[in-house]
Amino acid sequence: MRHEALGRVNDRIEIVGHHVYPGYLVRGSEMTVMIEAGINLLGPAYYEGITGILGSFHDLEAVLVTHGHYDHLGALPYLKKKSPGLKAGGFHTVEALLQKEKVIKNMNFLSAQLVDYFPQLVREDISPEELAIEAVTLECSMEEGDSIDLGNLTIQVYETPGHTGDHLSFFIPEMGLLFPGEALGNPISDLPGEVKVEFLSSFTQYLNSIEKLMRLRGDVTMMAMSHLYYYEGEDIQGFFDKTYNSTIRYGNLIEEYLDRADGDIERACSLMVKREYDEKGTVYQERNAYISNVMAQVNAVAMSRDY
After folding, report:
1. Selecting from 3.30.365.10, 3.40.50.300, 3.60.15.10, 3.90.180.10, what CATH number does the domain 2-236 have?
2. CA 233, CA 307: separation in Å to the nearest integer?
3. Which of 16, 191, 287, 296 could cross-link to 49 by cystine, CB 3.0-4.6 Å?
4. DSSP per position, 132-187
5. Tens of pLDDT, residues 223-258
């Protein structure tokens, strides 16, 4: 069964923010964390939602991010300012990424484009400067095999690169709950049976990460996506199969564009944007972000297939 990612899931999991960019509040008996920190526009919504649930925002002890993209850690600087003792966790390279002026500038540029897509999220009482993405410290550096004890719940850490090189996924075995980030791609709101393939850094690693998470499938009873939905029951197994098969097909589609462009990556990208985005009109993503993603994906396939 597919559920919109918002509201109360059970007595341990609640979702705050917005269903497109959900923040998953996980409450153990000894520690409470949020998984994902969405876009910067949602900083106040995360803060208010968590405060309403916990009674005090200071009772949130850590925020864990799956990877270093602006729509997964965008609200982190705002939240850390609200509670200086709040710890942040992610792969060790994410902190270094957030020290780069060019990266921060690009993250804020992409964040600004979302105002047109989500005008309802704009708060007149909070200035853009307060929400701006800036350098932050990650107190919890995580890698494959690490675990976090929340008290009666354990978060197991898996390295799942391919979407990005710094991508992590989290699994809570006591609940059979998997947080794959974007290692398994993303659901598509208007096409319930389809999956948006999300490899950016490596096509080969992306497939390997899908296979790694598929080895958990017998233990997964709930899967909480980083965008739009969480899944229970038979839909989980269907999603695993769909994302693997969709990834193979999408890699082949990109190879077709590379062949049409005689291996020229920029030309293949232009052809793909014109057809898949401009003409078909079925891609639900801001155009600048889509172009950036397609260039990375074409590069990834070209590298994996020796163009």
Report:
1. 3.60.15.10
2. 41
3. 16
4. -------SEEE-TT-EEE-SS-EEEEEE-TTSSTT-EEEEETTTTEEE-TTTT-EE
5. 999 999 999 999 999 999 999 999 999 999 999 999
